[in-house]
Design brief:
- It contains eight helices and eleven strands.
- It has two domains: 171 residues, Rossmann fold, CATH 3.40.50; 55 residues, Alpha-Beta Plaits.
- With 252 residues, the protein is of the alpha/beta class.
- It has a five-stranded parallel sheet with strand order 2-1-4-6-7, sandwiched between helices. Strands 3-5 form a two-stranded parallel sheet.
- A hairpin with a 2-residue loop joins strand 9 and strand 10.
């Protein structure tokens, strides 16, 4: 069974393709994370956990979902991390997480997708996006082939920099960079409520037709990039930048 988390659609796209290649079920963790429900799942096929990379680790919200889930059946697990470039030393943390969960980790695949982190980088161009989306099915097909053959994922050997990024940099990033206080909304807002609906942490509430952000944000970019009026900004860092949502998943 595939369990996935996605902010802007890349990981959903990959999870669905994997489900097709593996002929397996695919479950979105959104509702469980949002409502704080511990999921109960059963599968005789290996578990495949699909999610974005947030500062060289899986998102903490997704790790929390996995920790609280009750998984029966297969004890084999794989991770598939979508990323804008690289996952650092995330595979080591994923192995430790599996151990905690009583699962046998068969490794972490990484799939390079368009980088959605418009807080730090410009959104990928249409051309870059199309190129990466076109390359993804072959990468995912080879992940699926290894899973079906019961083989471990191919991982690169982490160096000192990878350990630093997934370790201390990740800790500092969560503490200082994931600040929901910086979100603002402009008069372009049409009060549609979509931002409130798409937030996986339930961190947005509507007040007088405008979104107000709470304290629990995982910087998934779903609110800012999904706003149909482009009325949301994150401080000055997103001004004038295009928004990114996986084009293959925009309407889902
Ligand atoms: C908060 C945040 C941190 C990110 N950190 C990394 C990173 O460390 N390495 C990387 O390659 N990509 C990073 N990215 C890019 C995403 O992992 C990538 O675009 C992913 O495919 C988005 O998946 P989604 O559309 O399913 O949310 C980051 C994105 C966000 C929003
Ligand atoms: S998604 Fe955009 S337009 Fe809709 S309520 Fe939120 S800020 Fe306003
Ligand atoms: S507030 Fe926005 S960026 Fe933060 S978790 Fe919710 S949807 Fe994601």
């Amino acid at each position: 069974m595939i369990l996935y988390f996605s902010g802007t659609g890349n990981s959903r796209y990959c999870a669905r393709l994997l489900a097709e290649y593996l002929q397996d079920d695919c479950v979105d963790a959104f509702r469980y994370i949002r409502d704080g429900i511990a999921g109960e799942f059963s599968s005789q096929k290996p578990w495949v956990f699909v999610c974005p990379t947030y500062c060289w680790q899986i998102p903490r919200a997704f790790a929390g979902f996995l920790r609280s889930a009750r998984l029966s059946g297969s004890r084999d697990a794989y991770f598939v991390m979508t990323c804008g470039g690289e996952v650092g030393n995330a595979p080591a943390a994923n192995r430790a997480l599996c151990e905690e969960m009583g699962l046998v980790c068969h490794g972490t695949f990484s799939v390079v997708m368009p980088d959605n982190y418009i807080v730090l980088f410009p959104a990928p161009t249409e051309e870059e996006t199309q190129k990466l989306l076109a390359a993804a099915p072959a990468v995912l097909r080879s992940c699926a082939d290894r899973i079906l053959a019961g083989k471990d994922a191919t991982e690169h050997t982490p160096g000192f920099a990878d350990k630093l990024k997934s370790g201390v940099v990740n800790t500092l990033f969560y503490r200082f960079n994931m600040q929901p206080k910086k979100f603002t909304v402009s008069d372009a807002c049409v009060s549609c409520g979509k931002c409130e609906k798409v937030c996986p942490l339930g961190n947005i509430r509507m007040e007088n037709g405008r979104p107000v952000w709470g304290e629990h944000c995982t910087h998934c970019m779903a609110c800012i990039s999904g706003c149909p009026a482009e009325a949301i900004e994150y401080g000055k860092s997103t001004r004038g930048k295009a928004r990114y949502q996986c084009p293959a998943e925009k309407e889902s």
